[in-house]
Amino acid sequence: MAEKKVKHPSIEERAGKGKRYREKAPVSSHTDWVPAPDRPDPVALLEEQNRTREQDLVPVRHGRMLVSPFTFYRGAAKVMAADLKDTPRAGLRVQLCGDAHLSNFGVFASPERTLLFDLNDFDETLPGPFEYDVKRMAASFTIAARNNQYTKAETHDVTLAAVRAYREAMAKFAQMRTLDIWYARLSEEQLMETMQLAVATQKGKALKKAAHGMEKEARQNVAKAHTRDSLQALSKLAELVDGKYRIVSQPPIVVPVRELADTYGMSGDEVEDAVREQLRSYRTNLPDDRRHLLEQFEVVDVARKVVGVGSVGTRAFIALLQGRDQQDPLFLQVKEATRSVLEDHLPKSQFKQPGERVVRGQRMMQAASDIFLGWTKGAQENRYLYWRQLRDMKGSAVVETMKPLGMTFYAGACGWTLARAHARSGDPIAISAYLGKSDKFDLSITDFSERYADQNELDYQAFAGAVRSGRLEATETV
Predict the structure, then answer these.
(1) Is the link from the previous residue into 252 a cis peptide, with omega within 30 of 0?
(2) Burial of 306 (0-12, 13-18, 19+ CB in 10 A)
(3) Number of domains into which the chain is organized
(4) What is the pLDDT of residues 145-177, one digit of tens each?
(5) Between the chain's N and C termini, which has fewer beta carbons within 10 Å?
(6) Residue 317 three-state SS
């Protein structure tokens, strides 16, 4: 295979490229969005996605999406991907998260055991136009703010804060040395220091009270994340039976493989054997040091575990492993990887194995990734998996209870983080030159977000109508 020739244009050439692309897709061109005349039926898109999912879990997915327009949006990445294909694009490519809504950001532990704030879901990751992620993120803030019953002005300001933070962060990354961009990260300490500064700058008794409340809640969430590890998962998810730990049955959310007879055309023992075989295969994709570490653990039990909103119905398992003794557990999560929803409209992934697509994209975008992140082929034809730790000090913000001040701060953190992820894989100098120094891009994307939120509400109503009519089955409160 011929070696890829890498070009190294000057700073001036890179900036010039970004400015030229402003002519191709002016920053103001993102305003006045309207759905395409041939826009597909959003319910039909979800039905199409359901065909390869676990049919007994599809109603659970619908039930979670039915809670509100916000939860519907979280599960409707495929719908938005179809809409984004017709939107303006400058032509500046990055590694996309593909589903960069605000609930897909959170804290987790780095290999050095430092809590970091970063993106944490990459099921849809794929190279593509940077605007896709920015619009997915920005619209999620508009929809979440409406869900929390903010005023129109508060909703506008929250969304604007997310896009402004992205643009301003990209401008800073454009001035940074290449290695400094790669090493950039938002640690727990930096997050708290930034929040303390935000609290200190608030004026007025009401705002100061709200700011202190925001800081208190953030510290509680971070403290809780510190406790979320495999030992904590053991106390929550497992029980001692005849002197051995096994995963507790909590159907339909957690179902041990011993109870999954014939679900996959295999007995429970065959499913467990298949997972053990997958574990052996997965180990071969890990670096030697990680493989050596993992080989010191043995599989104790395996269960199917439902996670998220958009992921519900794809195959997902948890595996309980044991090291030196019963108080040395390791929980791994095994998730099915399918085609990215973006592959319907963008060039297909260079990786034939979807699990590898997810892992490679995650490593490209995150400041630090799980030491056990890896992929393997499933036991059955056309099934692909990726692996990671189930709980490694992971934590996420409770969006539904956020006040405007808290969500505005959170928007800034998400915008910075998305810009950092894009700067690692794309050209921050060209992107920053395209975005410009004024707030025109910020306002343009905010306008898009408000219009898209309107459409999302209509889609949600159509979805809810499909449930009421019996076209879709939904199991709620699960």
Answers:
(1) yes
(2) buried
(3) 2
(4) 999 999 999 999 999 999 999 999 999 999 999
(5) N
(6) strand
Q: Are residues 30 and 113 in the same domain?
A: yes
Q: Which residues is 128 bridged to in the sheet? A: 94
Q: Please, which pLDDT band fits residue 223 given cuts at 50, 70 and 90?
A: confident
Output the CA torsion 175→179→180→184 (10° steps): 120
- What single letter denotes the amino acid at residue 382? N
3-state SS, residue 51: coil
On whether both 240 and 343 belong to a single domain, the answer is: yes
* Residue 354 near residue 339 (C-beta atoms within 8 A): yes
Looking at the chain, the number of H-run helices and the number of E-run strands are: 17, 13
Containing structural domain, residue 235: 230-389
Residue 30: which region, alpha, beta or left (left: phi > 0; alpha: psi -120 to 50)?
alpha
Instruction: Give, as one character, the DSSP assignment of residue 257.
Output: G
Q: How far is CA 169 from the centre of its chain?
A: 20
Q: Facing residues of 387 across strands? A: 334, 374
State which H helix or E strand residue 96 sits in.
strand 93-96
What is the spatial distance between Cα 468 and Cα 462, in angstroms, rounded to a whole number? 10
Per-residue pLDDT band for 1 (boundaries 50, 70, 90) equals very low
283 and 187 co-located in one domain: no
Question: For residues 431 and 131, what is the distance between their CA atoms, to the nearest angstrom?
Answer: 10
Q: What is the 3-state secondary structure (H, E, C) of 318-361?
A: EEEEECCCCCCEEEEEEEEECCCHHHHCCCCCCCCCHHHHHHHH
pTM beyond 0.85, yes or no: yes
Domain stop point among 389, 409, 425: 389
Neighbouring CB atoms inside 10 A of 87's CB total 17
- Helix, strand, coil percentages (3-state) for the chain, rounded to 5, are 50, 15, 35
Non-local CB neighbours of 445 within 8 Å, separated by 6+ positions: 30, 134, 135, 138, 159, 163
b/e string for 249-275 if b means 16 or more Cβ within 10 A? eeeeebbbbbebeeebebebebbbebb
